[in-house]
């Protein structure tokens, strides 16, 4: 019991330290270099909540970025929700690479809802490989696939989605024009 409490205190103090730190210098440096560029590459950065919020906020008004790479950045469902809000208003992003994070179903559904609502008509590629997505609410995902016709590539490799749900998603992608390539 005492060990559990110590771990909880360590976790809490680490979270508080991250909030006090704000945006990391490395992320600010990458962001400053990325402004006005087509590719924003943050892969392999251990992003804090403040880092991700700053990136998403910048992309709400950016008119140049077409590719955002956040692979292996320690992202969770709340981070995906922040990105979903950005997707509702961003008009230029074509590729969103989010593989090998911890986005899970909750984060994926937030992104699906943002894409389904029709705000973003530019995103063509969404990579969610290895994000612990089970695809429990497959109906919402199917609806996003059928309504967002700009999305042509959806990568879901390495997620524990049942074969039945994978088949439903594949069918949804094949039934629309243009077809959706999904793995």
TrEMBL record:
The keyword Repeat applies. Residues 1-13 have a biased composition (Polar residues). Residues 1-28 are annotated as: Disordered. It comes from the Eukaryota. Keywords: Repeat. The keyword Repeat applies. PANTHER family: LEUCINE-RICH REPEAT-CONTAINING PROTEIN (PTHR24111:SF0), LEUCINE-RICH REPEAT-CONTAINING PROTEIN 34 (PTHR24111). This is Uncharacterized protein. It comes from Didymodactylos carnosus.
